[in-house]
């Protein structure tokens, strides 16, 4: 069966690219279609001979400037001729789901999220943009929204990466979506035989919406040790915050190897997760190490963390709310509420193997649905 996998862009390796990697395990001979491709960064994972890029690849520095091409993306994806394929699968958080397929070709789209900057987060992006970006956003976004809705209607089956995203799909596209959780590499993680250490962990990119500042301030207030793993645009700001906090015992590791991250996760008291995410892979990875989560109680965390079994939630993105959650966690932890082996068992529900199995089932159902129309 000749299969095409369509992905927004291949310029960095992250959670969405893990999904494409797993799709290729299901269909090793599939061709990949994408907006732009950075061979230096992605060539080992996605070989050049498998990748077909859009006309925008010809623009100098395209792999760095691609986010500026939003108004050109719909046309770029619609230019791909997929008429020779027996199955088309899209992996999309932007415009990849907008390719045009034959009525007789099953077309399934795995949606990481509808375009955040076009819909519910439009005003946040607008507020934080410069004058020129604001001008073009106001001018282009109404047409982008129209195209985004219209293109969503020509997909046979929509699959969301969480119930949270399924709700956003229903809100903005008025389509129902099946839920298949994204793949987490639980096999490379394990529960340590050693007792937990005396520290909490944050593991994240240093960007504003991750709200790492809450974890730093709350741990400083409670005089708790915090290990902060990662890097990003907020690094200087977060280090200044930590330095200004009295009683702060905050260690920044920078970017470290997977094995070092694993060691920190295995022995932490808990992972602190302050973001509102569509899904959130890192909390699942910590649970795969048998460690509980202290999470903001919105978004994907509500689907990956079980309250008072694999972690606890805080209700507001505020220092006060997080402080209360840490205190509640410590109370439950003293009562031996959190069983590492059971936490690990819960995390295994989100394994890559389960992702492939569940996605395969949605593909089979889509093929049956299309076949019944022919």
Automatic annotation (TrEMBL):
Domain of life of the source: Bacteria
KW Transferase (keyword) present: yes
Organism: Treponema peruense
Keywords noted in UniProt: Transferase
Name recorded for this polypeptide: Glycosyltransferase
Gene3D superfamilies: Glycogen Phosphorylase B (3.40.50.2000)
Domain Glycosyl transferase family: 199-335
Glycosyltransferase subfamily 4-like N-terminal domain mapped to chain residues: 13-188
GO molecular function, one term: glycosyltransferase activity
Database matches in InterPro entries: Glyco_trans_1, Glyco_trans_4-like_N, Glycosyltransferase_grp1
